[in-house]
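note to self — DONT lose this again. spent like an hour looking for the file last time. sequence + predicted structure for the chain T wanted, 162 res
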Amino acid sequence: MQLALAARDFVHAIERYRTDSTREHASMGEREVVALGHLYVHGSLTASELAAELSITSASATELVDRIERAGYADRGQHPTDRRKRLVILTERGKRIVAAIYRDLGKHLNAVYEALSPEEQRGVDTFLTTASAALNHRTHHTDPPPPIPPNGGAEPATAPVL
């Protein structure tokens, strides 16, 4: 339980940081920032795909897309293979905002990460990758996570790209 509570504190610290950083760079709510982050990482998505990523209803996703489109952070575009579907596409403005928010967060996280020994970095890398895969498998029914190598991974760690 202690690990779960520590993870909760870490997630909330990131959310608070992201909210504060958002206020510095743009005027939008937390849900909008998270949506833009998904679009930044995954590329263009349909509103229903975005709804699934955010665990919200299709109607809520449509309203959210309307807001980020009005603000100039995203546009709706034609789906390349299905003329019935529309994609939500980040604008250059949206990309710049998301990059700025996560670049700031990355600087702070990398400072902590770089202070760790290479062995500690490998442990962090292995834990975060494996824990994320296990949780994603449980919540999104993805393939099960790969087994952890006995040595925890032999390659030297590199700072995460954020």
